[in-house]
Amino acid sequence: MDDFRAWVRAELAARLSPRRADAHTSVLGAGSDDLVASRGYLHALAGSGLAVPSWPKDYGGLDATPDNVGIVRSELGGFAVPDLYPYLVGLELVGPTLLAHGRAEQCARWLPPIANGEEIWCQLFSEPGAGSDLAGLATRATRDGDEWRVNGQKVWTSRGAYARFGLLLARHDVSVPKHRGITAFALDLRADGVDVRPLRQMNGDAHFTEVFLDDARIADADRIGEVGDGWRVALTCLSYERGASTAGGTGGLLDVDRLVELARARGCASDPVIRGELARLVIDTRVMGYTARRARDTARAGRPGPEGSGMKIRGAALFKSYTALAARLLGADAALDPHGEWQTLFLTAPSISIRGGTDEIQRNIVGERVLGLPEEPRVDRALPFDQLPGASAR
Ligand SMILES: Cc1cc2nc3c(=O)[nH]c(=O)nc-3n(C[C@H](O)[C@H](O)[C@H](O)COP(=O)(O)OP(=O)(O)OC[C@H]3O[C@@H](n4cnc5c(N)ncnc54)[C@H](O)[C@@H]3O)c2cc1C
């Protein structure tokens, strides 16, 4: 065993409990909103760099090479790792985005508390009129001396109920085309003028929110990137989101062996139709594993590419088939157990086709950036935002 692997194993053994053989797969926060276990895990790893090995040492990481990051991941497989869902925006999206666009003092302020579990972040992108067409967002940021005043509404904010900060996109200039008038900020959700209101999801999740901004003030020091750089910041964040959703969207959730166990427990394991469907899931899961490996290799060479979109489409479809088969095996029992894990997963599955960019949008990305198909017609690219149809209503 090489020195690095031996060190990682010893550090993990000193800080975490071994993984139990019967440990169940993550449900990605679905239905639980469990902060305690994930915070405990990050606290336990604090100071080791092992929670975010690729990050620089100064910001809570290890400066690890991609191969060494792989070693940390594989060694973690032997230990109890809870569902890190509450922290994923910080760990997987905001962290890498700040490393790409943040100033050194911003990284020093925000990254260590993400790595050690002290501060949770959310993503304040979507609005009632801007989801797939994110660049059409209408929340306004107006410069006021050393501060910005922000007014507008965000929606579908996962983790908004308990996040301390949000990566916010707001429009600072309506006189330029929509992609160019956006600036990114870190918004303190405890600031005056920020009203976080709960939205409950059908799977029981209670961390979902809408966020109203009424003259909320943000120091210019909390602007991320240059004024007008918001779209670049957003694209970085979204590329990591698609990359993360290859693992986070479904990867931790899909465990065909559990479905086989369920089929056995329900007395259906020798039903040829069920066996055929299980075999199909095994094949599709394997194929997805290979595609994920390819996407990871590309990501190692830089930031995640459009492969993440292909993965997300495939993962969403696979996860829906997986949970639908579980519901079929359980029959009426699936509906009768509102706290049952399978029911939660079944009710979570449709959202995977929407969150982080819908299946249709991912298909557009694959069509244009992987297959080289002609771009879909976009008539609003060059027009100033305030001359777009409907702009006066926003
Ligand atoms: C569980 C969950 C968690 C989420 N968490 C967050 C979060 O933390 N932060 C955040 O900012 N947002 C979050 N979102 C919002 C998510 O990013 C948006 O819902 C998504 O981008 C779609 O936007 P929309 O809902 O406005 O749908 P719309 O954009 O209005 O789309 C409606 C339908 O039209 C289709 N469509 C739209 N444009 C095109 C096109 N050009 N070509 C083909 N079809 C098209 C879409 O695919 C969709 O089927 C979350 C959503 C969900 C479901």
Commentary on this structure:
This protein is α+β, with helices and mostly antiparallel strands. It has a domain at 249-370: Butyryl-CoA Dehydrogenase, subunit A, domain 3 (Up-down Bundle). Helix content is 44%, strand content 13%. It is built from twelve helices and eight strands. The chain has helices at 3-15, 35-45, 66-76, 88-101, 104-115, 230-248, 256-265, 272-300, 307-330, 332-336, 341-352, 359-370, and strands spanning 121-124, 140-144, 147-157, 165-171, 182-188, 194-198, 209-219, 223-224. The strands form two sheets. Strands 1-4-5-8 form a four-stranded mixed β-sheet. A four-stranded antiparallel β-sheet has the order 2-3-7-6, with no helix packed on it. Strand 2 (140-144) and strand 3 form a beta hairpin. It is globular.
**CATH fold node name of the domain at 249-370:** Butyryl-CoA Dehydrogenase, subunit A, domain 3
Report mean pLDDT, rounded to a whole number: 90
Main sheet makeup: 4 strands, mixed
Helix segment count? 12
Tell me the structural class: alpha+beta
Number of strands: 8
> What's the CATH H-level superfamily name of the domain at 249-370?
Butyryl-CoA Dehydrogenase, subunit A, domain 3
CATH architecture of the domain at 249-370: Up-down Bundle
Task: Write down the CATH class of the domain at 249-370.
Answer: Mainly Alpha
Bulk shape:
globular
Order of SSEs, N→C?
HHHHHEEEEEEEEHHHHHHH
Share of helix, binned: 40-55%
In percent terms, what proportion of residues is strand? 5-15%
Index terms:
single chain, four-stranded mixed β-sheet, 12 helices, alpha+beta, 394 residues, 13% strand, binds flavin-adenine dinucleotide, Butyryl-CoA Dehydrogenase, subunit A, domain 3, four-stranded antiparallel β-sheet
